[in-house]
Amino acid sequence: MRIVLFGPPGAGKGTQSKLLRERYQATIIATGDMLREEVHQETPLGREVRRYMEQGMLVPDELVIGMVERRLRRLKNGRFVLDGFPRTVAQAEALGRLLARLHLPLQAVISLEVPAEEIIWRLSQRRICDACGETFHLTFRPPPEDGRCPVCGKGPIIQRPDDRPEAIARRLAVYEAQTEPVKAYYATNGLLHRVSGLGEVEEVHRRIVKLLEGRPALATM
Ligand code: AP5
To answer: What span, in angstroms and rounded, lies between the C-alpha atoms of 69 and 98?
Structure first.
C-alpha cells in the first residue's frame, strides 16, 4: 500500500491514517505531526517552522520535502500512508521524482471530502495531548477531566495553537489557494479517488477500505 490521504484541515486524515495503519501495517508519514515534534523538541528545524505553523501558513516546500525524503528512505516494508503531504503542486512533483528513484510508485490519492462548516466545527472541538499528539474531540471523544492522557499517561491536553478561530480561517484559505490544485494534478494522472469524510469515523473507514479492497493491488502491495 502506497497512498496519499488528502483533504482539508480537519477532514479526518490523522484519524483515518491510524485505522489504515492497524489494518494494513502501513507506516504513517504525517508531516504535521513530524513538524510539531520538531517544534516540541526545539530543534533548529522546529524553531524555523514554528511561526508558520502557529499562523496556519504552509512551511516552505524545501524544508518539508527534505523531511519526507529522509523518512521515506528509512521505510521498512514499502507500505506508507502519507498524511498532510503533498500540499502544493511543487511538493507533489518532488514526491513523484523521489518515489521513482526509490522504485515505490504511488498507487492512489484518497481525497476526504468535507464541507467547510463541518471542518470549522471539528477543529474548534479538537484537543490533543501535548506529549504524544493523541487526538480528542470535546463531543465525540472528550478528553479526561484530570488532563492526563489515557494513551501515554502524560499530557497536558491542550488546544493546538492553529485550532484557534483566526488560524482556522487562514488554514482554510491556504488550503483553497495552495493545496486544492494538487487534486487536479492527481486527477490528470488517474490517481485521485474522492471519498466522503462525513459520518461516523468507522463509516468513513469502511468507505476507504471498500475502495482499497475493490482494487486488491492497493491493499496488499
Ligand atoms: P497538519 O497537522 O497536517 O494539519 P491539517 O492538514 O490542517 O490537518 P489536521 O491535523 O488539522 O486534521 P486532520 O485531517 O488530520 O483531522 P483529524 O483526524 O485530526 O498540519 C499542521 C501545520 O503543519 C500546517 O498548517 C502547516 O503549517 C504545517 N504543514 C504540515 N504539512 C505540511 C506540508 N506538507 N507543507 C507545508 N506545511 C505543512 O480530525 C480533526 C478533528 O475531527 C478531531 O477532533 C477528530 O476527532 C474529529 N473527527 C475526525 N473524523 C471525524 C468524523 N468522521 N466525524 C466527526 N469528527 C471527526
So the answer is: 7
Q: Which residue owns the Cα nearest ligand 1 atom 30?
A: 32
**pLDDT tens, 92-108?**
999 999 999 999 999 99
Give the residue-averaged pLDDT of 35-44. 94
Q: Provide the residue ranges of all domains of the chain, joining segments of one domain with +.
A: 2-218
Q: Do residues 13 and 109 touch, judged by C-beta distance below 8 A? A: no
Fold of 2-218: Rossmann fold (3.40.50)
d(CA 8, CA 197): 10
Q: Residue 214 pLDDT more than 90?
A: no
Residues with CB under 6 Å of ligand 1 are 7, 9-15, 31-32, 35, 52-53, 56-59, 64, 84-85, 87, 91, 122, 125-126, 135, 137, 140-141, 162, 171, 200-201, 204
13 catalytic, yes or no? yes
Q: Are strands 157-158 and 126-129 parallel, antiparallel or unpaired?
A: antiparallel
Active site residue 51: no
Q: What is the CA(12)–ligand 1 centre distance, in A? A: 7
pLDDT tens for each residue of 105-129: 999 999 999 999 999 999 999 999 9
For residue 77, pLDDT over 90 is answered with: no
Cα torsion through 79, 85, 86, 87, rounded to 10: 160
What mean pLDDT is predicted for residues 16-38? 95
